[in-house]
Design goal:
This protein is α/β, with parallel strands linked by helices and about 240 residues long. The chain is built from 9 helices and 7 strands, in the order E-E-E-H-E-H-E-H-E-H-H-H-H-H-H-E. Helix 3 (about 100-110) links the parallel strand 5 (about 90-95) and strand 6.
Length: about 240
């Protein structure tokens, strides 16, 4: 599970952690808000039988760097572009879950020649409305999110996480708690998470028309996947 330091522009020197397995056409997996590269651990082996699979810790998450940054979609897209450029990857299929789907779309809009196809899994597609839950809006409030993060505990984190699953499997919840809670509790990780909540929401709301117009120009295969019992991202997104 190597790291790479990006080169060029706003993301120069940014360190990203990633998993790479398999051999064949490039497939890049982008996790959702609060996720990390190993969130794809059940999918990587099957995909790696036919492709070279890259699963990233997006900046601010997992063990990637957590710099002070805008944490909006264009910034995440520039980090992804830096990753592709630094590793010299060929045009790739992008698979994005939730926030990762939004990042994949934003990247495809700015670098269409580097994207072969998109698969969006329970994704928030920019330009198609943004209806965050009341708890998202609450945590995104400046000061409130910081206070709630300081008051949180592993038990509370586990209880909240379990509500994201239609049929919570203890092993899955424990895996995410074990891998994410300690990391999320650090100051830089907490700041990056809250900055993402705020930056992505502001970007969705301020640039909705721009994204919708740009999406009409996107000419590549897109697969949309949405779970019937998805408890986090409504189909309207």
């Amino acid at each position: 599970m190597p790291d790479v330091r990006l080169r060029g522009g706003e993301v120069d020197g940014l360190r990203l952690h990633y998993i790479v397995e398999g051999r064949g056409p490039a497939v890049i997996l982008l996790h959702g808000l609060g996720g990390f590269a190993a969130s794809w651990r059940h999918n990587i082996p099957a995909l790696a039988r036919r492709a070279t699979v890259y699963a990233l810790d997006l900046p601010g998450f997992g063990t990637s760097a957590k710099p002070h940054g805008p944490y909006h979609l264009p910034w995440f897209a520039r980090a992804l572009d830096g990753f592709v450029e630094t590793l010299g990857l060929p045009p790739a299929a992008l698979v994005g879950h939730s926030l990762g789907g939004a990042v994949a779309v934003a990247y495809a809009l700015t670098r269409p020649a580097r994207v072969e196809r998109l698969a969006l899994v329970g994704a928030c597609v920019p330009g198609f409305g943004f209806h965050p839950s009341w708890i998202y809006r609450l945590v995104a409030l400046r000061g409130v999110g910081e206070a709630l993060a300081l008051l949180g505990s592993a038990a509370l984190f586990k209880a909240v996480l379990a509500r994201c699953f239609h049929a919570p499997a203890r092993a899955e919840v424990d895996f995410f708690v074990d891998h994410e809670y300690a990391e999320r509790a650090s100051g830089p990780a907490r700041a990056a998470y809250l900055a993402t909540l705020r930056g992505v929401r502001a970007d969705f709301e301020a640039r909705a028309r721009d994204y919708r117009r740009a999406l009409a120009t996107l000419d590549l295969p897109v697969l949309l996947i949405h779970g019937r019992q998805d408890r986090v991202v409504p189909p309207v997104h």
